[in-house]
């Protein structure tokens, strides 16, 4: 996430982690971040409790980067990725 802090970015935070006692990683809407969608999935019926949370976010790059770093420093988190949506100069609708 090498973008200017004031740049508005949109994309998906993808978090892979080991679930502990119904733990879900929540990303909350704030003054600087909009959360459009949140999806949680886990491998039911397997001995490993591997989970993936996918969160569609939009906000200034500095705030999104802060959430990204917070998730990376959360216990049981194995991997955090941010997939940026294509940047548009004009609003699409």
* Topology, number of strands: 4
Largest sheet: 4 strands, antiparallel
Mean pLDDT reading:
84
CATH classification class:
Alpha Beta
Classify the fold: give the CATH topology.
Alpha-Beta Plaits
- How does the helix and strand content classify structurally? mainly beta
Proportion of helical residues: 10-25%
Walk me through the topology.
Layout: E1 8-18, E2 33-42, E3 50-60, H1 61-72, E4 77-84
Antiparallel strand pairs: 1-3, 1-4, 2-3
Explain the overall architecture:
With 93 residues, this protein is mainly β. The protein has a single domain, classed as 2-Layer Sandwich (Alpha-Beta Plaits). Helix content is 13%, strand content 43%. It has one helix and four strands; from the N terminus they run E-E-E-H-E. A hairpin with a 7-residue loop joins strand 2 and strand 3. It is elongated, with a radius of gyration of 14 Å. The protein starts with 7 loop residues before the first strand and ends in a 9-residue tail after the last strand. The relative contact order is 0.34.
Task: Please give a quick description of this structure.
The chain is mostly beta strands and 93 residues long. The chain has one helix spanning 61-72; strands at residues 8-18, 33-42, 50-60, 77-84.
Keyword list:
single chain, Alpha-Beta Plaits, elongated, mainly beta
């Amino acid at each position: 996430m090498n973008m200017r802090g004031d740049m508005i970015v949109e994309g998906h935070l993808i978090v892979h982690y080991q679930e502990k006692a119904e733990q879900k990683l929540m990303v909350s809407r704030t003054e600087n971040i909009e959360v459009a969608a949140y999806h949680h999935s886990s491998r039911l019926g397997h001995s490993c409790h591997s989970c993936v949370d996918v969160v569609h976010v939009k906000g200034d790059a500095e705030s999104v980067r802060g959430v990204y770093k917070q998730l990376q420093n959360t216990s049981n988190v194995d991997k955090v990725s941010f997939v940026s949506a294509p940047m548009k100069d004009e609003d699409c609708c």
